[in-house]
Design a protein that fits this description.
This is (2E,6E)-farnesyl diphosphate synthase. Belongs to the FPP/GGPP synthase family. By secondary structure, the chain is mostly helical. The chain has helices spanning 4-15, 39-42, 44-57, 63-69, 82-93, 115-118, 140-163, 175-179, 181-200, 205-227, 240-245, 253-279, 287-314, 317-320, 327-330, 336-345, 347-354, 362-372, 375-393, 401-415, and strands spanning 168-169, 172-173. It has one domain: Farnesyl Diphosphate Synthase. Strand 1 (168-169) and strand 2 form a beta hairpin. The longest helix has 28 residues, at 287-314.
């Protein structure tokens, strides 16, 4: 049974209105997407080749490893390939008339070490992938960067699903449920190894450093999430007892903690690969464009994660393709909507946090507080502010169809329902 204090809060919440709080995103986007370039249509051929080349990069003589490494890529619902799409659009938007359209595609497929040494234990390791139409302004190295980004992303999904004990992913049984946790971890490691091999052949040390740091960021972000928002940031005095006693009190530093986690787990990959895409182009000397691409990707990634956190409260598991209906709270993670609810309800929400939702009815009450609060609307406006920042950084790019597609993509991130 819920505690008497919880029952009083629940009664007050239920009696404040006969109608439940709206559980959907505000529909405030007024731009007509039909009037600007559709990013998915614009690069449909590129994305199709990306899928083929990723499968080629994952060759292994071990059949089980082959199956699990390609499991999420072979899903009927493979995801939107948002990260590669952004990289390729940035590549096109940053292109100049001086682009070398005839850059040797085979160069990025050639091993640096002796072939017999490099492939001695795995003769099926791929040495080439299929080139696409070279008349486009996207360079082979930028295409390979898009493939590397997707490999790193899917590797993180495999590892996350093991850590989170996820039942589903992208609307199907998760890899850990299908193959077991040990094989899923190994498959994630294998994807990272393949990404590292491809990365080394890009021949750009700054890009190699950037992309390598993404993997570190993903690990750091996951550790922050594992520690969870239930552990308040350390007080400046270092007094742990004081921190423990004040855990029911909302602390604005929790928003900083939340945004940092979002950057490390989500925005870092998008931001740094956008920067890398420009660095691989012939506009490397344009430092303003390099910085603008990074800021664009950072704010787009932060907005994407905030919207994802909103959807956890507003749509079903089936629509999202993974656990929803307040699953973040169930795992002890308080995201944007929950933080705003905590700030609004104060100790009433903080008491639930302090006891880690252990009492019967605590989770239901916390979810009701989130939906009765202004948390979803405020989270949406926080995401919208990041989208506006993303768009402002596109001013550094010359007008083009790709630039318009990036504007369109910003709106799609804010409007998405899965």
């Amino acid at each position: 049974m819920a505690s008497s204090s919880s029952r009083r809060v629940l009664f007050r919440l239920l009696s404040t209105s006969t109608q439940p709080a709206p559980a959907k995103l505000p529909q405030s986007i007024t731009n007509s997407l039909s009037s600007i370039a559709d990013p998915f249509t614009l690069l449909a051929d590129e994305l199709s080749h990306l899928k083929q080349n990723i499968r080629a990069l994952l060759g292994s003589e071990h059949s089980t490893l082959n199956s699990i490494a390609k499991y999420y890529f072979a899903s009927p619902n493979q995801g939107k390939h948002l990260r590669p799409l952004v990289i390729l659009l940035i590549a096109q938007a940053s292109a100049t008339a001086q682009h070398d359209h005839h850059q040797d595609f085979d160069k990025i497929n050639q091993p640096i070490s002796r072939h017999d040494v490099l492939n001695d234990s795995n003769p099926n390791q791929p040495t080439s992938t299929e080139p696409v139409d070279q008349s486009t302004k996207i360079l082979p190295t930028q295409r390979r960067l898009a493939e590397i980004a997707e490999l790193i992303h899917v590797s993180s999904l495999l590892h996350d699903d093991v850590i989170d004990q996820a039942e589903t992913r992208r609307g199907q049984i998760s890899a850990p449920r299908e193959f077991g946790s040990k094989l899923s971890v190994l498959a994630g490691d294998f994807l990272l190894a393949r990404a590292s091999l491809a990365l080394s052949r890009l021949g750009n040390f700054e890009v190699i450093e950037l992309i390598s740091s993404i993997v570190s960021n993903l690990v750091e972000g996951e550790l922050i999430q594992l520690e969870s928002i239930l552990n308040l940031p350390s007080s400046s005095t270092g007094d742990s007892s004081s921190t423990q006693q004040s855990i029911t009190t909302f602390d604005d530093r929790l928003f900083e903690f939340y945004q940092r986690k979002n950057y490390l787990k989500t925005a870092s990959l998008i931001a740094k690969t956008c920067r890398a895409s420009v660095l691989l182009s012939n506009t490397t000397s344009n430092s303003h464009l390099v910085e603008a691409s990074y800021e664009f990707g950072k704010h787009l990634g932060l907005a994407f994660q905030i919207v994802d956190d909103i959807l956890d409260y507003t749509i079903s598991d089936q629509s999202l393709g993974k656990a929803a209906n307040g699953s973040d709270l169930k795992s002890g993670l308080i995201t944007g909507p929950g933080l705003f609810a905590w700030k609004e309800f104060g100790h009433e929400f903080g008491d639930l946090v302090h006891r880690k939702f252990i009492n019967p009815g605590d989770l239901d009450l916390a979810q009701l507080m989130v939906k009765k609060s202004d948390g979803i609307r405020k989270s949406f406006h926080l995401a919208k502010s990041h989208i506006q920042s993303s768009k402002s950084h596109l001013n550094a790019f010359e007008d083009s169809e790709s630039k318009q597609a990036l504007y369109s993509l910003c709106d799609l991130v804010l409007e998405r329902s899965n």
